[in-house]
Design a protein that fits this description.
Elements (H helix, E strand, L loop, with lengths): L11 H13 L12 H8 L3 H13 L3 E3 L5 E3 L20 E2 L14 H13 L10 H13 L7 E4 L2 H12 L5 E5 L4 H9 L3 E5 L1 E2 L2 E2 L1 H9 L2 E7 L12 H12 L5 E5 L19 E7 L1 H4 L6 E5 L1 H13 L6 H12 L5 H21 L11 E5 L3 H10 L2 E2 L1 E2 L10 E5 L5 H14 L10
Parallel strand pairs: 3-14, 5-6, 5-9, 9-10, 10-11
Antiparallel strand pairs: 1-2, 4-12, 7-8, 11-12, 13-16, 15-16
């Protein structure tokens, strides 16, 4: 299997870099078994310790994995192969429902908010050493307390993934297990791979992760758990009160586990938040503004236990340092002035989402979408379904981007779906897909 690759290099870094290059060029395909450490040492003329260090670097970079007697092998999805690259290019004239974006018509105008932020900057410019915007933190704290989130320190990050990456890096090490939703958010699954962490999938139903799957992940040694509170991407699941109680009880029995709660649905979902925050000693709740206010307002409010927030801030100071105060003040202005009618926005998305789910059900097609911007449609074969749907003028996202072990599906973003498009889309799906009968998302 290694006929096309020769190990070279005189240091651990050089050997690891050579293997990475071999993977990226296809000379070391996914699943290729690498030689034992002593054999690599003999091939390159280095000590076994140096060869072992090279393998350790490759594991930390997410390029290879080591599993006892199975040895070391190239990961099935190497860190350089991102799930985001699995996409459908919509030809001209095809209606693209694959992107996952909010409806631009439901986003607030930014001219007034940005002007207010610029005016505040002229009066008191934010300089090096300036903390996060006091008004934004105060408004965020009020909203979080109203939703039942425990009072805790607050910080601002450049979006959800920025916060999650810093906290996972601060708490975990390569090889640690992380319980993630399956199907789940593409960017998170990519991040877990890049950090060299081991994903432990949790299946979902409309109420969020199944308690039995969370319990299994915890028994398997998961050091962290990532759960979406509502508007789960891609299924639309939202954690209800009863499910939250079950999940909290399981987490409370493992207080050392890091809990990360993603509440990106705040601002465009009308289902209440049932927070899990505080169920463990180490926790983080992240509230992004991207879907409600616009993806270019890349900002998230985060809260968590003091140790976790301190670690996040320390790592942030070593990188970006802070989030632009112009963005912070613009978001504060939008919140203070009530620029988004959350109920109206949520109702608009719900009409499109519920309308499509109902239209598909009338045609014998099972689909899921309790909240948020997407509808998840199980199918027998993704490639066939996507090809047939493209021929009928619609582009859907392949579920392979979101799946670990759950069956094939398509993700349809309904955010811009017009009422008059619902029935034609459902009819074309009925013609393109074989109905799925699964009662859960896995």
């Amino acid at each position: 299997m290694l006929e096309t690759y020769t190990f070279t290099g005189g240091t651990a870094s050089e050997i690891a870099a050579g293997v990475e290059l071999g993977v990226s060029e296809g000379r070391l395909p996914p699943g290729a078994v690498l030689p034992p450490v002593r054999e690599v040492a003999a091939l390159t003329g280095v000590s076994p310790g140096t060869a072992a260090a090279a393998y350790r670097l490759l594991r930390e970079r997410g390029v290879v994995e080591t599993s006892g007697r199975r040895g070391t092998r190239v990961r099935p999805r190497p860190a350089g192969t991102f799930r985001e690259e699995i996409r459908v290019e919509a030809p001209p004239g095809v209606r693209d429902l694959s992107q996952g974006n909010p409806d631009p018509l439901l986003l607030p105008p930014l001219r007034e908010a940005l002007a207010a932020a610029a005016g505040a900057h002229e009066e008191r410019p934010a300089l090096y050493g300036t903390g996060d915007d006091d008004e934004l933190l105060a408004l965020a704290g009020e909203r979080l307390r109203a939703d039942g989130v425990p009072g805790a320190p607050l910080a601002v990050t450049s979006g959800t993934l920025d916060a999650v990456e810093r906290v996972l890096t601060a708490h975990l090490r390569p090889g640690d297990a992380v319980a993630v939703e399956d199907p789940g958010w593409t960017a998170l699954l990519d991040l877990v791979a890049v950090l060299g962490l081991r994903p432990v999938p949790m299946r979902l139903d409309g109420e969020g992760p199944l308690p039995d799957d969370l319990a299994r992940a915890l028994r398997a040694g998961a050091r962290a758990v990532v759960i979406t509170a509502r508007a789960q991407n891609p299924t639309g699941a939202a954690v209800g009160a009863a499910r939250a109680g079950e999940l909290r009880a399981l987490l409370a029995a493992c207080p050392e586990v890091l809990l990360i709660e993603d509440d990106h649905g705040s601002g465009f979902v009308d289902l209440p938040l049932h927070p899990l925050a505080g169920a463990t000693a180490r926790w983080l709740l992240v509230r992004s503004t991207a879907k409600a206010l616009g993806p270019d307002l890349r900002l998230a409010l985060v809260t968590g236990d003091p140790v976790t927030l301190d670690r996040l801030r320390r790592r942030q100071r070593l990188a970006a340092g802070w989030v632009s105060h112009l963005l912070q003040r613009a978001v504060a202005h939008l919140w203070r002035t009530g620029a988004v009618d959350t109920a109206a926005v949520a109702a608009s998305y719900a009409r499109r989402r519920d309308g499509l789910v109902a239209a598909l059900a009338a045609r014998g097609i099972t689909a899921y979408g309790r909240s948020g911007l997407n509808v998840w449609v199980p199918v027998a074969d993704e490639s066939t379904a996507i090809t047939r749907l493209l021929a009928r003028g619609w582009a859907a996202a392949p579920g392979a981007r979101n799946r670990i072990a759950t069956p094939p599906a398509l993700r349809l973003t309904i955010s811009t779906l017009a009422p008059e498009e619902v029935e034609p889309l459902a009819g074309d799906l009925a013609a393109a897909l074989r109905p799925a009968s699964a009662g859960r998302y896995g």
